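Milestone M4 deliverable, item 7.
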Amino acid sequence: MSKSKFASTWKCVVGLAACLVLPGIGFADDSSSGGAPGQHFDLAAYKLQTPLAKGDSVKEVTQPSLRDFSSPYFYYDAAAKAMVFLCPDNGASTRGSHFPRSELRDTREWTFSGRHSLSASLAVTRQPGTGSIIVGQIHGDGKGSEALKIRWSRGDVVVGIKTNPGSTEQRSTLVHGLKLGDRIDYRIVQKDNTVTVTINGATQSFTYDHGWDGQSVYFKAGNYLQDNSGSGSVGVVSFYALSNG
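Output delivered:
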């Protein structure tokens, strides 16, 4: 199925608590789930990027609408007390990317000076055909500006960094052998040009070159699906906690 037809496609995602209908370019409000994620999590500084096309990029949900927003791609699971991100492998992608996402983007930008941090507790409950989902990032505004990615890869949790903007990503596996549904607790702490990542108690620090000096970056968290095959698979990520500072 082509991405141009995605917005007019109706799908039922098997294995979730209910059948999720993708109604054109609109969103279905899931009022039975106990309210929107923004009513249970502090998302005041975030906007949401969805897997639905808008122009040459994707539909975004900004504040103040995000507080009361839910959809088949972003909803609150009252039983699990979780903010759920669902992304299909035939979703639309943002400019500069080939992959779809249901992902929060922090609107507060910063540089590699001072101290900034992001903490999350989550579980990957479904994975796409490739087995790969990015669940946390430090991202910049330009091409090749993914300073850090935390990636679920078929049960391993891998940290990828670019020591310079546009450089080849270097990867380190911090956690091995998780099952779908296992808890992942990560913390990213940036202090000047050093970033320390802790995942389920395993810690590694990375030093960034001065090519990042003055570059604006920001945190992202959610479900950045590393699959655009259009095979019908989905990724589902449930966040139980998300905080900055």
